[in-house]
Amino acid sequence: MRILLSTPEMDQGAYLAALQKYCPYADIRVWQDVVETNWQAEYALVWKPENELFQHQQSLVAVFNLGAGIDALEKLKDLPQDVPLYKLREAGMGQWMLEYVLYGLIHFGRHFDRYHRHQTAGRWEPKNTRSLREKRIGILGLGPLGQYVANSLHDMGYNIAGWSRSLKNDLPFPQSTGLESLNGFLAQSHFLVNLLPATDETFHILNADRLMRLPRDAVVISCGRGSIFDEHALLLQLQTHHLRGALLDVFEHEPLPIEHPFWKQDNIIVTPHIAAPTQADDAIKQVLADILDIELGGDQLY
User: Fold this and answer.
1) Which phi-psi region, left, alpha or beta, contains residue 223 (left: φ > 0; alpha: ψ -120 to 50)?
2) Using 50, 70 and 90 to split pLDDT, how confident is the model at 302?
3) Is 216 designated active site?
4) Does residue 237 come out as left (phi exceeding 0), alpha (psi in the -120 to 50 range) or beta?
5) 3-class DSSP state for residue 212?
6) What is the pLDDT of residues 184-210, one digit of tens each?
7) How many CA within 13 A on the CB side of residue 52?
8) 268-283: per-residue pLDDT in tens?
9) What is the pLDDT of residues 161-182, one digit of tens each?
10) 53, 77 Cβ separation under 8 angstroms
């Protein structure tokens, strides 16, 4: 079995070590070592690879994206259309994403944003705090990570509702589907958690009109893909204090440009796309299970 690894924006060493640990019999090579050779892989494990890789590799059986989002990969003009593309399905990232969302809920829900401002002014001013369980938490996107976060919060007693483009079965909380239900879903979301993927259908799905549907003092937590938001419209809602605040991990253009106004908006917390880092061991074990399924003649694609 021949496996090619290319992760120019990730710690390649962790993935290489996991491959060697769990698949010691394979011929495993990294892209920079084969780019000038004729060596051909059967399986490519990638994260934001160079387009040149797919010009060079002509014998691929499958491509594995080492992350949940495949938008950057799909933009490569030479990505082979006849080779199955797999992506990670939670793979240990769910707990990280849950903790990130919980931080946003607690930070704004328990008034820590206001207490931080009070500290700089030397003000001792306790706020009346309502239970977070009285607030509706809207999970926008019910893929594997969205379902993990939503189910976990529901099990903890939070008031959860979900929205997705298509119906998901066997969820223990209310679910809305389709664009026709989105405005109503937003109107009831005191906390809006974005876990949508980047697609043509989701680009700027949260535009000025839809952001106005959120309740006054609502909070946005964005850790799916940044292109979901019209960023100018989101900024306006935060500047006018229609929205209480935002915890933003993903952006339409990354890294976030230094001149971007999000940096200086005092009711925004900016983090550098760190909400749910891929866990190398969990990712490689999932990939190898899928490879085994392929080798045994399975036809389930992800």
Assistant:
1) alpha
2) very low
3) no
4) alpha
5) coil
6) 999 999 999 999 999 999 999 999 999
7) 8
8) 999 999 999 989 999 9
9) 999 999 999 999 999 999 999 9
10) no
Mean pLDDT of the chain: 95
d(CA 80, CA 194): 30
The amino acid that residue 31 corresponds to is: W
Q: Bridge partners of 62?
A: 43
pTM score:
0.91
Residue 42 to residues 1, 18, 28, 32, 293: CA-CA distances in angstroms? 7, 18, 10, 17, 14
Catalytic residue among 107, 136, 225, 244: 225
Annotated active-site residue 225? The verdict is: yes
* pLDDT score for 68: 79
What is the DSSP annotation of 219-281? EEEE-S-GGGB-HHHHHHHHHTTSEEEEEE---SSSSPPTT-GGGG-TTEEE--S-SS---HH
C-alpha closest to that of 238 among 226, 229, 246, 230: 246
Written as six digits, the tokens of 222 are 């964005």
In terms of Cβ atoms closer than 10 Å to its own Cβ (0-12, 13-18, 19+), residue 258 is: exposed
- CB hemisphere CA count around 78 (13 angstroms): 11
Q: Provide the token pair at 145.
A: 């990570």
Element (H, E) at 105: helix 93-109
Set 89, 111, 204, 273: catalytic member? 273
Confidence check: pLDDT of 292 > 80: yes
Burial class (CB in 10 A: 0-12, 13-18, 19+), 212: middle
Task: Estimate the crossing angle of helix 93-109 against helix 144-155, to 10 degrees.
Answer: 50
Distances (CA, A) of 122 to 118, 125, 256, 266: 6, 10, 32, 18
The per-residue pLDDT for range 104-119, each reduced to its tens digit, is 999 999 999 999 999 9
